[in-house]
Amino acid sequence: MGTLNELLSWGKGELAAAGILEYELDAWLLLSFVTGIDRTRYLADRDRVVLDKDICYYRELISKRSRRIPLQQLTGWQDFMGLAFEVDHHVLIPRQDTELLVEEAGRRIRKRAQVRVLDLCTGSGCIITSLAHEYGSLGSGQIVRAVGVDISERALEIARKNAARHGVKVSFIKGDLFDAVEEKFDLIVSNPPYISSSVIERLEPEVRDHEPRIALDGGEDGLYFYRKITEQAADYLMEGGYLLYEIGYDQGEAVASILKKNGYADIKVYQDLAGLDRVCLGKRMEE
Ligand code: GLN
């Protein structure tokens, strides 16, 4: 077994046997990652003999993927909002669903001249970095201050690298929600952990065993962080400012009612491309 074609068939077989749904795609993506070959080159040259060191590396990655380590933790990358984000097992892998939160935040940023944005539970920093990339945080553009908070120093290390890679200025602060925050913002966004503790055991092994539990677990009913953040946010949000959350598909009503109970107005729930509740937001009332 030494050609591109042979290696790919072997990889597919291994991943299929391990029960991986996307075995064809994953086997190809790992081969392309290891050899640096794109689809066109592969099709033109599939009988090319692969270097021994690449064969070794491919075998190692296929074996890890068979143990249900997420593909993105093997390649170290995930695209989000058209930007490449570095990831490892200390951060949640950015999800396409979260792009809806970024888009809704963007719509509210565009309407204002100078916007200060806070991202709580920033993880890889994908949300605040893509907002800063799109709306500026280097003195020009609408965002004049961008802050990302996370309780995990290991996550913040990744987030800082991601912001630097995309040339944006974001202050990353270590803290438990608002504990280390000392200023007010026009927009607070968050994709907090929101899976009910008991549901975590039923998730796919990639998520359950390899993504950080601390980024998933939203307490007994999954709503712990929405309650906590909403109760505290008024002290850190300007009057007329927005609090925007990513939420789970079945949390629209519950999160909307938490916002309502805390005096927020213009409460809205938005659906993702699959038609499921994905974003909930409210406006802090003028007092
Ligand atoms: N904000 C990050 C993301 O959306 C991490 C979220 C989390 O860790 N719960 O990907």
Keywords, separated by commas or semicolons:
alpha/beta; 7-stranded mixed beta sheet; 12 helices; 41% helix; binds glutamine
If you had to describe this structure to a student in words, what would you say it looks like?
The protein is an alpha/beta fold. 41% of the residues lie in helices and 20% in strands. The strands form 2 sheets. Strands 5-4-3-6-7-9-8 form a 7-stranded mixed beta sheet, with helices on both faces. A two-stranded antiparallel ribbon has the order 1-2. Helix 2 runs antiparallel to helix 4.
> What is the CA-CA span between the terminal residues?
72 Å
Low-confidence stretches: none
| Biggest pleated-sheet summary | 7 strands, mixed
Distinct small molecules bound, one entry per kind: glutamine
Shape: elongated
What is the mean pLDDT?
Answer: 96
Task: Give the total of beta strands.
Answer: 9
Biggest sheet strand order reads 5-4-3-6-7-9-8
Tally of alpha and pi helices: 12
**Helix/strand structural class:** alpha/beta
Q: Give the proportion of residues in helices.
A: 40-55%
- Radius of gyration over all CA atoms, rounded: 21 Å
Could you give the order of the helices and strands?
Answer: HHHHHEEHEHEHEEHHHEHEE
Beta content comes to 15-25%
